[in-house]
Amino acid sequence: MAADANEGETLSCLAQGSSESCTSPGESAYGSAASVCELSLVLNRLDLDVHVLALSCVDEDAAAGFARLEAAGVSVTRLPIRTPSGWMRPQPAYRIGDIARIRKALQQLRPDLVHCHESLGLAAVHASGRGRTVPTVATIHGATGKNPLYEALFRWLCAGVDARIVLTQRDLRSSEASGDSAVLLRNAVDPAWWAAAHEAAADLRAELGIPREALVIGLVGRLSPEKGGEPFLHAYARSQALRGAQVHVLVAGAGPRERRLRALCDRLGITPTVHFTGRCRDMPRVYRTVDLVALPSRRETQPMVLLEALACGVPVVATAAGEVPVMLANGAGTVFPIGGLHEMISGIESLIASKEQRDTLSRRGRSRVESAYSVVDLARDIVERVYEPLLP
């Protein structure tokens, strides 16, 4: 079946949502899940028959997530998966049931093409035997500090796919060195949707007890070690300029380091000016609340948080992790060396003191995401360069 969207023909394909956080744009979508949602919305508009298989932890709110996809008419099947506790050994054995459920869903859907973003989906494809007859695409979102065995397993599973999409030059070089072909693409968002949602959103200041006159730095994303939240909070606590200017910090997200970060704030005496939202259900409200977003990560690929913030006109400061310097090229944001927290805090102090600088970054950021990171361009690239060559 042809997959030429320009001619209005139809391709039945399945995009597997992340098992870490399966929520739609605007609803606490981390990384690969946000990418799946943004891409699926546009593929659906290109006359492709898209079905999203959304994997979500059983302890998450089953009613939350992917609402924007469903409202747009994208078919979504929600599959609950388990989160093994630390004492469960061997942990991979506790995934057998999850893989079986995904395999059954694949057999019922009978897709013409499967596009996976996590290891569970790839494992189910292999287990079902359909990987040999149904073209399979995998997006390698890159190592972001997960268990090395997980990363090794995912890359091993990727060895059996028909096409690979990578998001960093490093992963492209790695694929080429191992003799595997890969396509380097950019993550993307719908800039118009995010700008409109940001404009219509009400901020969170009253709910969180943040003074109206305060300037707010946003730390947005999964609360895990590689995101650099702890060293950033240490640096914030040491900054007399930020503390003296009554600058607050909004920590938006959830993850394994949340309890540790809260305890650190208590020890540093900054709890009154650091606010935790937990898992966010309405990201435009977060971006409406903050005056700038800081990304002090040690490892990244192409963080969706940066694209969302830029589309909302929120100034961004970030470390040079992964493809961040490319994303913030042409003055779209301010980039600092990985681990350069002193330099980052100094840069933030300068931005806090100058609304003119913040406005300039806001304009440049919006221009950058509109010109180089539009999801419409990404969807067409994927169809033409990845999907079409795999189909008769």
Question: Keyphrases for this structure?
Answer:
alpha/beta; 7-stranded parallel sheet; 16% strand; 13 strands; 43% helix; Rossmann fold; 6-stranded parallel sheet; 392 residues; 2 domains
Summed up:
By secondary structure, this protein is α/β, with parallel strands linked by helices. It has 17 helices and 13 strands.
The name of the CATH superfamily of the largest domain reads Glycogen Phosphorylase B
CATH architecture of the largest domain: 3-Layer(aba) Sandwich
Total strand count, please?
A: 13
Largest sheet: 7 strands, parallel
Give the CA-based shape.
globular
Point out poorly predicted stretches.
Answer: 1-10, 19-29, 58-64
Order of helices and strands: EHEHEHEHEHEHEHHEHHEHEHEHEHEHHH
How are the strands of the largest sheet arranged? Answer: 3-2-1-4-5-6-7
Description of the structure:
The protein has 392 residues and is of the alpha/beta class. The model is unreliable at 1-10, 19-29 and 58-64 (pLDDT under 50). The N and C termini lie close together (6 Å). It has a seven-stranded parallel beta sheet, sandwiched between helices. Helices cover 43% and strands 16% of the residues.
Topology of this protein?
Layout: E1 12-16, H1 31-45, E2 49-57, H2 67-71, E3 75-81, H3 96-109, E4 113-116, H4 119-128, E5 136-140, H5 148-158, E6 163-166, H6 169-177, E7 183-184, H7 191-200, H8 205-208, E8 215-220, H9 229-238, H10 240-244, E9 247-252, H11 258-268, E10 274-278, H12 283-289, E11 292-295, H13 304-311, E12 316-319, H14 324-327, E13 334-336, H15 341-353, H16 355-372, H17 375-387
Helix pairs in contact: 1-17, 3-4, 4-5, 7-12, 7-13, 9-11, 13-16, 15-16
